[in-house]
Amino acid sequence: MKENKIKKLTPMAESKFLSLYDIEYNNKLGDLKHWALASRKNFETLKAQYFEGKEEKVDAAIIAAFHVDSKKLVCIRQFRVPLNDYVYELPAGLIDGNESFDAAAARELKEETGLELIAINHEKTKGKVYASAGMTDESAAMVFCTCKGSLSKEFLEDDEDIEVMLLSKEEIKELLKKDVKMDMRAFIMFQAFAGMGEELFK
Q: Any transmembrane segments, and where (predicted)?
């Protein structure tokens, strides 16, 4: 069993979707240090994970979706309050309760784009990845899938300000040349799709 370097967890601010904690931990020299953590998890869940060996829950699903009829990648451009700007992203969303990431991916794809998930490529899908481990424990399933249907804003929530696009390999190449804000996971996916196109989803 690995050594638990975390010694104490203290809530500093808690809200519905995000909380801030102070962590006391031992560094590699054994010195007691403090670290600020932003987490999607409430105090009881995080405490059980750190001190009782509870399995870590995946927080979100990020969806790399290939539209089979148009042969294009599904992309969104969403307003993000912390940046006060629109950002190119992949469809994504938080996993509800005991929902599987498969179910969350299908639900979020429908809500954000109007498209219907056909199949998930589980060989390429990764069940737990991290985007900013120096600041947050937030994890996401990176879901590779195919989809069908027509784009729609009918299912968007009031606070979701989203433009949905289907982009070809060539359109992605042109987008990558522009000085626009992009989510890092979308950027990596765009680079891969610009190089491989449809093969990326086989």
A: none
